[in-house]
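Changelog note: in this version the structure field was regenerated for every chain. One regenerated record is shown below for reference.
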Amino acid sequence: MDMKDIETHGLVLLGCGKMGSAMLKGWLDGGLPASSVWVTDPNPSDWLKGLDGLNLNTDLPKHPAVVLVAVKPQMMTDALPTLEPMGNGTTLFVSVAAGVTIGTYERMLGDKTPIVRAMPNTPAAVGRGITAIIGNGHATADHLGLAESLLTAVGQVVRLEDEGQMDAVTAVSGSGPAYVFHLIETLAAAGTAQGLTPELAMALAKATVGGAGHLAEASEEDPGQLRTNVTSPGGTTQAALEVLMDPDTGFPALMNRAVRTAADRSRELGA
């Protein structure tokens, strides 16, 4: 199974909000014909309505190559039963819905359905996301390869060893962008407190966090070494890091507690 199968048999995108739209744009930019995609969305954007050849809110193919589920978890109970006839067959189901387990899909679609569960994150909107995937027992190597091909349209893809890791992935990369956005907010606020205008402080904070993240990805050195490289003994950076790296009140304890709390909540939602 490959992208040619999608062109022949079609891809159904269930839900086309920000994440669904980012993926769809990536597929179309990669050469997938709009006529090979069926989108079901109760509130389609003007961009969707303007895509020539796209099958929008029309009858679905009986046996599409892939169904990608991108609706909110709370909408799953209403949305999935309409797709039950496609279960237990050749159609691959790929889910990017947070907290919805493979077992839930197997109960709703049939336990012989090939399913890949995925956790992308919001930088997918600018093609800089990272997505973790795991398949069930009926998802073959070809199925996983196809899912990976679809999801690389919005960034990097990593494969998990078991589904139990998904809660930690959710807490680190799924929720992680919000932690970074809050870092930008608080860094800018701290700059304002030291006499900068809010506009200048925010510009500095955004560029600093964005640039440091890009450097961390591009460099062959690990982040710990990069931190050391910019920390002069007795200098300003060291003075700040002594506060941030305090084992009781600094980043290490705070981030560990935050990620653990997010992972625990993910487990609760998936129960």
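Spot check on this record: Residues 198-218 form the longest helix (21 residues). The chain has a mean pLDDT of 93.
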